[in-house]
Amino acid sequence: MIQINNLRKSYLVNGTKVEAVKGISFNVEKGQIFGVIGKSGAGKSSLLRCLNLLEIPDEGEILIEGRDITKLNPKELRNIRKEVSMIFQHFNLLKNSTVFKNVAFPLEIAGYKKDEIDSRVLELIDLVGLKDKKDEYPANLSGGQKQRVAIARALANNPKILLCDEATSALDPLTTKQILDLILELNRKLGLTVVLITHEMDVVDRICTHVAVMEKGEIVEIGIKDDVFKNPKSKTLKQFLQSERGSKVIVLEKKKDKAI
Ligand SMILES: Nc1ncnc2c1ncn2[C@@H]1O[C@H](COP(=O)(O)OP(=O)(O)OP(=O)(O)O)[C@@H](O)[C@H]1O
Ligand SMILES: [Mg+2]
Question: Which CATH number applies to 2-259?
């Protein structure tokens, strides 16, 4: 479904070249929920943003269903952006538009007729569980509800791939779980392929089928999530798993305290 070959991305910062992604290659198959984890600055967002050409790679190929998207003309690129949708940590909603209008926006851009837009938007709002909020403005919604709007908007054009950049990092644990459950449901119901980046191990553990660990612009381990987590090799993953276990022990001890 997605084949990434020797992808490189660098930035010029005050005349100095910062290499964010250093020649990465991997594949994501249809229906997978593929997690990319790594510390801050590892290059996760740069990698993800190349997958829908929000960032233009310096080098390498990104094949989506066999087509190299780095070689498309502007019209073909607009079409590929419908197939590869994205959600963000801070939701990026239009704050002066209602839930309905936010979800309708990509359909208006795509040139659908008003009655088609109306029925599709209602279907999407229902799908993410926000039927009673369609006329609210983003400011009146909780973080989880805002992310649901962003997900509905991202699904408007029937994408095949959903990219999630720290989509639950601004949410509390319970809301995180609800949004992850929704992503999982969409993955199963719609056959949506998901690539998500996060620094929360729990997110990967809960929903990812596969995982790649990034360090300094490179993938240092990759594979089926259960296999990789059972036998961590990189320093990053070992540290992540250790701190995760540590925080679980603390939670358990807190619970024990309460019981006493
Ligand atoms: N637009 C940009 N301009 C200049 N440098 C950038 C830009 N975006 C990212 N970088 C640099 O590229 C490197 C990788 O950044 P990136 O945002 O991809 O990491 P990340 O793994 O997503 O980090 P985080 O977990 O903090 O979001 C960093 O050194 C960062 O400073
Ligand atoms: Mg990032």
Answer: 3.40.50.300
Three-class HEC string of 51-107 = CCCCCCCCEEEEEECCEEHHHCCHHHHHHHHHHEEEEECCCCCCCCCCHHHHHHHHH
- For the CA of 197, the closest atom of ligand 1 is 22
Domain boundaries, the chain: 2-259
The closest alpha carbon to 225, from 33, 97, 5, belongs to 33
- 3-state percent helix, strand, coil for the chain, nearest multiple of 5: 45, 25, 30
Residue nearest to atom 28 of ligand 1 (CA): 41
Ligand (nearest to CA of 9): 1
Average pLDDT per run of 10 along the chain, which is 260 residues long? 97 96 98 96 96 94 94 88 93 96 96 96 96 96 96 96 95 94 95 94 94 97 96 93 66 47
The finding on whether 44 has its CB within 6 A of some atom of ligand 1 is: yes
| Residue 254: predicted pLDDT | 47
pLDDT at 242: 86
Nearest CA to 216 out of 62, 44, 52, 51 is that of 44
Q: How far apart are CA 90 and CA 60, in angstroms?
A: 29
Q: Is 16 in the pocket of ligand 1 (CB under 6 A)?
A: no
Q: Helices 114-127 & 99-109, crossing angle to 10 degrees?
A: 130
Of how many residues is the chain composed?
Answer: 260
Whole-number Å distance between alpha carbons of 118 and 56: 34
Ion ligand 2: residues, CB within 5 A, are 45
